[in-house]
Design brief:
single chain, alpha/beta, eight-stranded mixed sheet, 12 helices, 8 strands
């Protein structure tokens, strides 16, 4: 019995599969995708295996990760129920791990009713940075799923940071950490554009900007200081840095970032309905 099956290996499912192979080894991971070619390409890269159906994924692994969009979850959960029931009958219970934005555990549960017993469900919300072990992932679970959390944590141990949160905060978390990389990449690109305008090569500018953002984030996490304090520590009176900060304020960077998170939060809640 393998530890993890990933149903759906798109951007997020594929990133988690990569992290799982690092954490528990490719021999413990199986993949399934509606488009088999995508699963086979990833499996060849990672050294794990591919199964031919949703049922095979359930029969093969202890933890079943669902990497499909919210609109596809109902049909997938109903397809999962019969093989989960069959495994339960021979004493092999499964845990279902969803990463669908906006879809509550209580909303998923009715579609698993065909299993004929209470199927443990865990919700996670990772971001794509899990692919390089620098991710931020939230996890919440029903009380019935507690015995399975340790297994899921082991599978996710190479993803980066993992935080247990209330399900009532999942959409808020997703708006900041799940969507956030897409907000940061244009900023890195813009910093690099400025560097090119100032005379750096594109390669140099991108490298310097990306490393700087990674280092600044590490300073926030490791120093425990407020971001505003860290900003002040870089800004000398009348210096070049405070002149640049003033331009960011003039351009509305802070308001744009706030509005991006709120727009993502609003859309995330809509997707779950």
């Amino acid at each position: 019995m393998k530890k993890a099956a990933f149903i759906g290996v798109g951007n997020m499912g594929g990133a988690l599969a990569r992290a799982a192979c690092r954490a528990i080894g490719p021999d413990e991971v199986v993949l399934y995708n509606r488009t088999p070619e995508r699963a086979h390409v990833l499996a060849e890269e990672l050294g794990c295996s591919v199964v031919d159906s949703v049922s095979d994924a359930v029969w093969t692994a202890e933890c079943v990760f669902l990497g499909v969009k919210p609109y596809g979850m109902r049909a997938l959960l109903e397809e999962l129920a019969p093989p989960i029931r069959d495994r339960h009958r021979i004493g092999e219970d499964k845990v279902v791990v969803s990463m669908a934005a906006g879809l509550l555990i209580k909303d998923m549960r009715p579609h698993l009713a065909g299993a004929g017993y209470y199927v443990p469900v865990i919700r996670i919300m990772p971001n794509t940075c899990v692919a390089v072990s620098k991710g931020m992932t939230a996890l919440c679970a029903e009380e019935a799923a507690e015995p399975y959390i340790e297994s899921v944590e082991e599978i996710l141990s190479a993803t980066g940071r993992l935080e247990h949160i209330s399900e009532t905060l999942m959409d808020q978390f997703s708006a900041v950490a799940g969507c956030g990389p897409a907000f940061v990449y244009p900023y890195i690109e813009a910093l690099a554009d400025g560097g090119v305008m100032a005379g750096l090569s594109r390669k140099e500018a991108v490298e310097y900007a990306a490393q700087m953002v990674m280092g600044a984030a590490a300073m926030v996490l490791e120093s425990g200081k407020h971001p505003g304090q860290l900003k002040d520590e870089v800004c000398s009176p009348g210096g070049s840095t405070i002149a640049g900060v003033a331009e960011l304020e003039r351009g509305g960077l802070r308001a744009a970032a706030i509005n991006a998170v709120l727009a993502a939060y609003k859309r995330g809640t809509e997707l779950g309905k």
